[in-house]
Amino acid sequence: xxxxxxxxxxxxxVSVAYNQWTQFESFPEFLPEVQSVVQLDDVxxxxxxxxxxxxxxxxxxxxxxxxxxxIAWTSTGGDVDHGGVVTFHKxxxxxxxxxxxxxxxxxxxxxxxxxxxxxxxxxxxxxxAKFKEYVERHGADGAWRGSVEN
Length: 150
Hints:
alpha+beta; 7-stranded antiparallel beta sheet; globular; 3 helices; 24% helix
């Protein structure tokens, strides 16, 4: 299993960063590799992504969600076997540290080589930077403040 752990500091209150992260269907607005996200219900999402020229589709289920604290998920089928957690840490009243941990099973030779070369880590770092830019400029487009617990 491969793993990526990246963090970024964002100049918005923790509730704003968390609220925007819960707006999964807006991810294509700031992450070009995400073609679409369809929220199927409070805990399930259908994703279509294009990474490195390879189109992939999969569903995820949120396994834990605590407002202003964390969102954890796992894939439930499709082309990608993965899971992860994003945590939100209040640095001050106006700044937040977002930490992302993603675990996945590289399947193809290209995915295994990419993991060995740390390409996924670079991609996650870039995605967090795009999220930072988006949320600092636009704030949160909405919010889902419900909790999901194991």
